[in-house]
Prior knowledge:
The protein is mainly alpha-helical. Helix content is 68%, strand content 0%. The longest helix has 30 residues, at 20-49.
Amino acid sequence: xTAADNEHPEKHAAAGWLSWPAWIADGxxxxxxxxxxxxxxxxxxxxxxxxDAVAWADEISVVLFIWIIFWANAFVVPxxxxxxxxxxxxxxxxxGQRAAAILRELLAAAAVDGAPRGR
Length: 119
């Protein structure tokens, strides 16, 4: 392992046969970024070379960028690298942390259960 590997130990956490989902998640994120870039270049080329405004390019770029954020947050960024607000949680003991974790999961389940349903 090199010094650069020590900076991101989470890359080595899923070694062996479990690493292929991480490669796929990284590949999907890269493909989404490439799609945003290509749509952006296409829009500029159409504007200046063909003198034609491509209205759909802005909407597609925004939707893709939002999905990049969702995808990277869910599958690319490890949980321990997420931004958390844990000032109170860190001050609790092990039992308090367990109770807070259970409460957090119950609140998340209630939010999902209370979400509007399609008809």
